[in-house]
């Protein structure tokens, strides 16, 4: 089944088997279909917000190691590594595919510093942001404490996944 070409309704989501649900929603949380699998038990959902909250709660309550694996599943921003189609589209929309060599080097250096400090890649909901906003954000957040940044990264994942769900579902 995969991600459908046209938006789904909440009614269609609520009517899916567990396998269909995980196949369709498994990519909402980057490379972490276990989030959708955990949220399935909370059906039926009365709104996209309820669906998102069930998925976010599954991610938050999974335990530190499993949540760390979710954080680590995200790609570095603006790397030339293979990313999921959703991540690639999001990064392209923010202009990260048009960095100058100097901007690419700066962002690459900031990403390395960030990852060395926090042990997971910099995560930011890039929709509505440009490359300057992104460079400024990583420059600021690399100075946060590990616990502050853990919470900030989970907050950003919440924004990313809400955008993805809103794109997938209509009404």
Automatic annotation (TrEMBL):
Its EC number is 4.1.1.97. GO terms for biological process: allantoin metabolic process; purine nucleobase metabolic process; urate catabolic process. Pathway: Purine metabolism; urate degradation; (S)-allantoin from urate: step 3/3. It catalyses: 5-hydroxy-2-oxo-4-ureido-2,5-dihydro-1H-imidazole-5-carboxylate + H(+) = (S)-allantoin + CO2. Residues 14-166 form the Oxo-4-hydroxy-4-carboxy-5-ureidoimidazoline decarboxylase domain. Keywords: Decarboxylase, Lyase, Purine metabolism. It comes from the Bacteria. It is an enzyme of class 4 (lyase). GO terms for molecular function: 2-oxo-4-hydroxy-4-carboxy-5-ureidoimidazoline decarboxylase activity. This is 2-oxo-4-hydroxy-4-carboxy-5-ureidoimidazoline decarboxylase. It comes from Paenibacillus rhizophilus.
